Amino acid sequence: MSNQKKIIECPCGVILEGQSDDAVVAAAMSHASEVHDMDLTRDQALEMARPA
Ligand SMILES: [Zn+2]
Questions:
Q1: Ligand 1 midpoint to CA 35 (Å)
Q2: How many whole angstroms from 4 Cα to the centroid of ligand 1?
Q3: What is the pLDDT of residue 24?
Q4: Looking at the chain, which runs of residues are DSSP E strands?
Q5: Could you tell me how far CA 18 lies from the centroid of its own chain?
Q6: From ligand 1's centre to the CA of 49, what distance in Å?
Q7: Alpha carbon of 7 to ligand 1 centroid (Å)
Q8: Edge-to-edge strand order for the sheet containing 15-18?
Q9: Is the pLDDT reported for residue 1 higher than 70?
Q10: How far, in Å, is the centroid of ligand 1 from the Cα of 40?
Q11: What is the pLDDT of residue 2?
Q12: CA-CA distance, 46 to 21, in Å (whole number)?
């Protein structure tokens, strides 16, 4: 588990940030659910995450 700051760029252009994998994954899952009415899995979110 990494505690490095990570970002996930959503295909819609929004950038989600978090201070850890868990934080950025949670931000991306909540964004996907609220904005896109889409269920993003933890694995899918992790695949999109990259170091900030
Ligand atoms: Zn989006």
A1: 6
A2: 22
A3: 97
A4: 6-9, 15-18, 49-51
A5: 8
A6: 14
A7: 13
A8: 15-18, 6-9, 49-51
A9: no
A10: 11
A11: 58
A12: 7
Residues 34-38: contacts with CB within 8 Å, 24+ apart?
35/10, 36/10, 36/12
- The domain ranges of the chain are 6-51
Q: Answer yes or no: is pLDDT of 3 > 80.
A: no
Enumerate helices (H) and strands (E) in the chain, giving the number of each: 2, 3
Q: What is the average per-residue pLDDT within 35-41?
A: 97
What is the arithmetic mean of pLDDT over 30-51? 97
Residue type, 27: A
Query: Has residue 27 got a pLDDT over 70?
Result: yes
CA of residue 18 to ligand 1 center, whole Å: 16
